[in-house]
Design goal:
The structure is a single chain. By secondary structure, the chain is an alpha+beta fold. It has helices spanning 9-16, 20-42, 45-49, 69-73, 169-183, 194-197, 256-292, 294-308, 312-327, 333-343, 348-360, 364-371, 376-412, 423-432, 435-438, 441-469; strands spanning 81-83, 89-95, 100-111, 123-130, 135-142, 148-156, 162-165, 217-228, 232-239. It has a 5-stranded antiparallel β-sheet with strand order 2-3-8-5-6. The protein has a 4-stranded antiparallel β-sheet with strand order 1-9-4-7, with no helix packed on it. The termini are close together.
Length: 476
């Protein structure tokens, strides 16, 4: 003997909380909803407006792994180390009878990491110059083993800022000379790794990213400038880390965690909106078919059979492609929901609700309502809809994962909204950058994990609801 299904939404969810699967699913969904709430705290709307602007992320490392990987590897990887202009010790001295001024900027860097700086970026040295005359500038790198490397020296003819990355040709040339003077082995400048050799123990493998050993200790960066008159020099130095944040970064230096946080409300909003709207549309046609019967019922049933065999995804891809061709931009995410409604106004839920309506319309209180002169509209919306709502909720919850997967599939195919950092768009960017082959596993694993966990939570909740509502699965 089966227990009667709860009639109200409140009673339905009370039953859900009494099951283990229901409790687990709700806990997962609360965590995901919390991520959506955290968005304004971790990254406000202005961050999203800068999402596709590479210059907005230039202080973050390229393709850095999440910081928590150190826990599993048992090491302490290099992290971003920024030294602002105020942290440089500045020394001024008048020379040449008061005509010139010697400015020395110096900073010490304690490097106690087990890995080298980011292999793609290395470091960035920025020098700002304030002068109307020529200026001589020299940059020296002093290692813990007291070896000195002259990274760059030249006469500057303008006040334009100087920026040196580890991949700068002059830095590579200076590193090549340093390797030759230290080991006697000549390495072509374009084959040097300054972010490795300058931080490595002296030896034949100091330029090999796989064999070089980290030289820990205190490094010193010294910038000397001879300025005419009242000129001035300031500098900042950034060592890019091998690890960054909770989810790492991508090839545009963007913090993937920001995309994950913003992807949570987008995924939930899209999945719930599409499922909710389509479920109510399907339920409306199902109630209409069951209540009116006759030709109306026959027409809706035949229409349902036709729409159930229409391949929605290929048609949606075709429409997205045509939209992109005509308007020269990708289709907005809200338009996807509109097209889904147009492509599937009826479906399997329509037939389920129709069968439920056929049973409900024969119950005594419905017959009494008709006898009192109530119209079809009142009966449908006041009496039948509340009765089928628990069954609709099961369909709504169970359909959410499919719409989340649909958005991810469209984004991976390049048909999603490029302005939004959705989970699918993050996977699309990873696919285009060949992250799987290069070894940037976090770029794929983190968004995939959240998609899978969200889908699992809704599927688990749908199972718990179905177990309560479905007479064949209901327990005492």
């Amino acid at each position: 003997m089966s227990a009667p299904a709860p009639l109200g939404v409140k009673a339905l969810f009370k039953e859900v909380l009494s099951t283990k699967s229901g409790k687990l699913s709700l806990i997962i969904l609360i965590v995901i909803a919390s991520l959506a709430i955290m968005v304004p705290i971790y990254a406000g709307p202005e961050v999203i407006r800068r999402w596709n602007n590479p210059r907005a992320w230039e202080n973050q490392p390229t393709c850095a792994a999440p910081e928590w990987v150190d826990f599993f590897l048992g090491i302490r990887s290099c992290r971003n180390t920024y030294i602002g202009s105020e942290e440089f010790f500045k020394y001024n001295k008048t020379i040449g009878g008061g005509v010139y001024k010697l400015i020395v900027l110096r900073t010490d860097i304690s490097y106690d990491y087990d890995t080298f700086p980011n292999i793609w970026d290395g470091f960035r040295l920025s020098i700002t110059i304030n002068t109307t005359q020529n200026m001589f500038v020299e940059i020296r790198w002093v290692r813990p083993d007291e070896r000195v490397v002259v990274l760059w020296s030249d006469v500057v003819y303008s006040s334009a800022p100087l920026t040196f990355l580890a991949t700068h040709p002059d830095i590579r040339a200076a590193t090549s000379a340093f390797i030759y003077n230290t080991t006697g082995v000549y390495v072509e400048p374009d084959k040097t790794f300054p972010q490795i050799a300058l931080f490595a123990k002296a030896g034949p493998n100091m330029n090999d990213p796989d064999k070089a050993e980290v030289l820990k200790g205190k490094y010193r960066l010294v910038i000397s400038a001879v300025v005419y008159g009242e000129g001035d020099v300031n500098a900042s130095f950034l060592i890019y880390g091998r690890v960054f944040g909770l989810a790492g970064t991508d090839n545009l230096r963007r913090d993937i965690m920001i995309g994950i946080l913003w992807g949570a409300p987008i995924a939930l909003a899209f999945g719930l909106s599409a499922s909710l709207i389509l479920s109510f549309v399907h339920a409306f046609f199902g109630i209409t078919a069951g209540w009116f019967g006759g030709r109306v019922d026959e027409f809706i049933q035949r229409l349902t059979e036709v729409f159930m065999i229409i391949p929605v995804l290929p048609i949606l891809i075709l429409i997205s492609y045509i939209w992109t061709t005509i308007y020269l931009k990708t289709m907005p995410i809200w338009m996807v929901i509109v097209i889904l409604i147009a492509l599937s106004p009826v479906g399997g839920g329509t037939l389920t609700v129709r069968s439920l309506t056929l049973q409900i319309k024969e119950e005594q209180y419905i017959l009494a309502t008709i006898a009192y002169g109530a119209g079809s509209r009142r009966i449908i919306f006041r009496h039948i809809f509340p009765r089928v709502t628990p069954y609709m909720i099961v369909g709504i919850v169970s359909a959410v994962p499919s719409y989340i997967f649909l958005e991810a599939a469209l984004s991976i195919l390049g048909l999603g909204d490029p302005t939004l950092p959705t989970w699918g768009k993050i996977l699309s960017d990873a696919y285009n950058a060949k992250a799987l082959y290069i070894g940037w596993w976090w770029w794929i694993l983190v968004p995939t994990f959240f998609i899978a966990v969200t889908a699992f939570a809704f599927a688990l909740l749908g199972y718990a609801l179905d177990k309560i509502v479905n007479p064949r699965l209901r327990e005492m």
